[in-house]
Amino acid sequence: MAIIQRQYLHYVIAAAADLLVALLGRFVFASNLFHNAGGLLMLCFLLLIPMALGAATAHFTPATATKTWRLVVGPIVTVMLFLTTALLFQLEGMICGLLISPLFLLTSWLGAFLYTTLTKGRSNDQNTYVVAGFALLPFLLAPAESLFTTPDDYRRVTNTIVIQASTAVVWQHIIRVPPIQAQDLGTSLVDNIGFPRPVEATLSHEGIGGVRRATFERGVEFIETVDVWEPQRQLSFSIVPNTATIPPTTFDEHVTVGGRFFDVLRGTYELEPAGPGRTRLILYSQQRLSTRLNPYAGLWTDFVMSEIQRRILTVIRQRCETQAVTPLS
């Protein structure tokens, strides 16, 4: 008795062919050959490899399959098979897997649609040439893409909160942030995908030139040098990751803060009176994003930074309002 029934054999072949194409692309683009050009963040990998994956799915799917399977369900299965394999064998981290999965799904659907359109009414031999073209295209165009410089995109993420406390109280809670417990922060998607939680922020001395050390879980630390000090009005500082304290396993290369693809440059707190005994606290940060797909990557980095800042502001509000109700003796 056959292990795999004959009517399902084509589906297994389709999945195996897709996985082979995706893994081959992963290893080629992650090699030294394309490292300086961006590697796995090259457009030829992020866009053309999943398109080839979708085309291969449509090619090997039996003619008896429904259009929905060929164009939608099949590509979903093969993309998830590749991402699961990459995670299981630690080829990629959870963060990267989550970030590229929507892009891979969309472009794999596009690849399946284009293949189906291009091969309509053609012979099987002609179809083979078409799917081979999809599979080879990423590797043929990659040398040309590597000639172009990766653009830098400087972004700003702003969060605002209103606190039932005076600016004097709020000021004391932003220049230094005592240790934060996990329950103070609540739950967030950024925890589930592996970003470390903020722990505390210390200050060497008050005034311009003071050094804040902002620490996060798993040994992540940022050195923040104060260059704007306006008591009860504004605190601003440059940010440099302390790479000596960050274990190499904390972040994947593609999302490492201070790496060639992403960096956090500055942070600023602004305090504004918002009525009697109320303060509007604004926190914004400036980041550098250097990928070939900055608009898409920026959606993710903006979300992560906004979540981190929102949670910090929430902790500050809770502490300030507790102090405002029960002043410290």
Automatic annotation (TrEMBL):
Entry keyword Iron: no
Transmembrane as UniProt keyword: yes
InterPro entries per the UniProt record, alphabetical: START-like_dom_sf
Signal sequence extent: none
Transmembrane domains' residue ranges: 12-34, 40-60, 72-91, 97-116, 128-148
Highest taxon of the lineage: Bacteria
Keywords for the protein's UniProt record, in alphabetical order: Membrane, Transmembrane, Transmembrane helix
Database matches in SUPFAM superfamilies: Bet v1-like
Name of this chain's protein: SRPBCC family protein
